[in-house]
Amino acid sequence: MYLPKTWTEDRERCRAAKVPDDRGFATKGELARCMVLRSLASPLPIAWVTADSAYGQESRFRRLLEQSGLGYVLAVPKSQFTVGCPRIDGLFAQAPAEAWEKISCGHGAKGSRTYHWAAIRLPAVAEFDYQGEVPHRMRWALARRSIGKPDEIAYYLAYAPLETTVQELVRVAGTRWATEECFQAAKNECGLDQYEVRRYPGWYRHITLAMLAHAFLAATAYQVREKGAAPVRQPGAIEFTVAEVRRLLAACRPRPPHLRGHRGRHHALSWSNWRRRRQAVARRCHYLRRCHTIGGRSP
């Protein structure tokens, strides 16, 4: 939880809100470093870190990842200093047309997220990129240009093992959208941002329960997709989503006596199947339009 200085410098206010005494002011970069260290101390397998420019522009955050042996693809502002050029946008300003390659960084609700990408290998830093005399890591600068709006360009710094391809770096950069979609789904379906609390324990409980509920819905949707049992899997329908699982679970809860038999579970499942078939048609139309935009290919 990010607490501004106006809060952390007023200890009486913090105590009134039950904020722990050990919670001092920390920038978003410092909070990110704490999250990375907690993740490294856990048994979870971690290979990559990706983040937006608010974190990517912090050199201390990048150094922590390099010292920890983690690869990263971090968005940075166009004014970001990089080796060989005072601004990262200057590295790509004179890039020839053949330097830009059309690559998809994943699928979204409206089709493939395809952009023009350019990559430049950066000089190595001996302190972090070598094991003895042998290089084992490499640095990249990436640029992502919109196909429909060429003036819209985003920039990234990457740190990766030697065998990593540009396509893999693009894939890692695209995983950040999944995180944003996860938070959006938690807000829409589990009320992650719908809290009205005055004290820290209440906020903490609400956030924890909302994230737990979303994790349960996501795991249930995944299990349903893996089993693929009839009548769950419908021809021409999209797979179950977190929102659809929540609706079906709501239809399974006990009803008051005067509503029993009125639009029960079978009605909810039939409506779900119809809705998912219509969503499949809408998604295919979006994909066709997107493919036409990026080069006229069919999905």
Automatic annotation (TrEMBL):
Per UniProt, which keywords does this protein have?
Endonuclease, Hydrolase, Nuclease
What Gene Ontology molecular function terms does this protein carry? Answer: endonuclease activity
- Pfam families given in the database record: DDE_5 (PF13546)
InterPro entries per UniProt: IS701-like, IS701-like_DDE_dom, RNaseH-like_sf
Q: Where is the signal peptide?
A: none
Q: Which domain of life is it from?
A: Bacteria
Record-annotated Transposase IS701-like DDE domain positions: 2-80
Query: What is the name of this protein?
Result: DDE superfamily endonuclease
Instruction: Kindly list the organism's lineage.
Output: Bacteria, Bacillati, Actinomycetota, Actinomycetes, Kitasatosporales
